[in-house]
Design a protein that fits this description.
Layout: H1 11-21, H2 33-40, H3 42-76, H4 78-86, H5 91-124, H6 136-162, H7 166-172
């Protein structure tokens, strides 16, 4: 029934109208449609919230992991980077070296992850609605997001590599 104003205020009148026709009709849980829909979406909403939380933790772990690996690589290559700077390499070129290495990690991850996800898509067919489990747009978005995360996590190590003091790097090595 459509109503203007507060629909809960009409409940007694609706109950009386129905009981005036048949007193034996049980009326126990009269709700608005929005309340009924909201109640039916409670479990999916909870599951999506949990999924988003776990995905956020996974993304954070990926960022920290990439940062750690690239940062460790820069620390291990400090002497080499110092020599490059001493021989005249520009800071931008040093940063590109670091980003290129990080993108190689991303490419390796995508090369392993995409076939694995295609294999797992058979299981996901029953879970995903409205989108094919092998939707190419989804894979492109994931690849672009992965590359973006790797680049973002590599910014600080790349800046650190670009600021290597050649004298200090050669003394430490």
């Amino acid at each position: 029934m459509r109503a203007t104003g507060d629909p809960q205020g009409l409940v007694p009148a609706v109950r009386e109208a129905i009981w005036s026709v048949d007193r034996d009709v049980p009326l126990s849980d009269i709700q608005t449609m929005s309340a009924r829909v909201s109640g039916s979406l409670g479990r999916p909403r909870l599951l999506l919230t949990l999924l988003a939380g776990f995905a956020s933790v996974g993304l954070l772990l990926a960022i920290v992991g990439v940062y750690g690996v690239v940062g460790y690589s820069v620390a291990q290559r400090r002497r080499e980077l110092g020599i490059r700077v001493a021989l005249g390499a520009e800071r931008g070129r040093i940063m590109r070296v670091v980003f290129r290495e990080a993108l190689a990690y991303a490419a390796a991850g995508l090369a392993a992850g995409i076939p694995a996800s295609l294999a797992a898509s058979r299981v996901m067919r029953n879970v995903v609605w409205g989108v094919s489990a092998t939707d190419p747009v989804t894979y492109v978005v994931i690849a672009v997001a992965t590359i973006g995360v790797v680049c973002a996590a590599s910014v600080l190590p790349a800046l650190r590599a670009a600021r290597v003091d050649p004298v200090e790097a050669l003394k430490a090595g």
